[in-house]
Design a protein that fits this description.
about 80% helix, mainly alpha, about 170 residues
Length: about 170
């Protein structure tokens, strides 16, 4: 439950920040169709779906460990419910809407010729290999750095808990 609340709060903050951004489109920008073609060639929707799944899996693992440390008596049913909530969130995540929101960002940062060149590259065998291998590369990289991330999260929680402790009374001057 705490995981779902924390994740929901993070997503709400990110969405509200994103909603406040106005993006000017460059005059030589690619069309929406050009950017959508690039997204299709790059399998952006599938990549985002995989990335979200990997991210939620890592977050769920960290959340479970922290939950067990803080509430050692947490039941398997509660952990299973938390897992179901996470899976439901992933399943209903608005990927298509997010991709649509990304189009103006690409239009702002890339010209039509940039988008055309990227589409050509990602349509080529090396581009397709890059796209195919990146999930495995990312997963391996996450496994390599995960222990450091976990240690930092645990240190941050420990520091926060120490800061929450009531202040110690000064020694008496009897």
């Amino acid at each position: 439950m705490r995981f779902a609340s924390l994740l929901g709060a993070c997503l709400l903050v990110a969405a509200s920040c994103a909603a406040q951004v106005t993006i000017d489109i460059a005059p030589d920008a690619a069309s929406k169709d050009d950017v959508k073609k690039l997204f299709d060639v790059m399998a952006s929707r599938e990549q985002m779906q995989d990335m979200m799944h990997q991210m939620f899996t890592q977050m769920r693992s960290i959340s479970r460990e922290q939950m067990k440390k803080r509430q050692p008596d947490v039941s398997d049913e509660e952990l299973a419910r938390m897992d179901r909530e996470s899976e439901d969130l992933i399943r209903h995540f608005p990927l298509d809407s997010m991709l649509d929101d990304m189009i103006p960002v690409y239009q702002r940062h890339f010209t039509k010729s940039d988008i055309d060149a990227l589409t050509t590259f990602y349509s080529s065998p090396p581009g397709q290999k890059f796209l195919h291998e990146m999930p495995a590369v990312t997963a391996e990289a996450m496994k390599a750095v995960y222990p450091k991330i976990q240690a930092e999260v645990e240190n941050a929680i420990r520091r926060a808990e120490q800061n929450e402790a009531p202040p110690k009374a000064p020694p008496s001057k009897d």
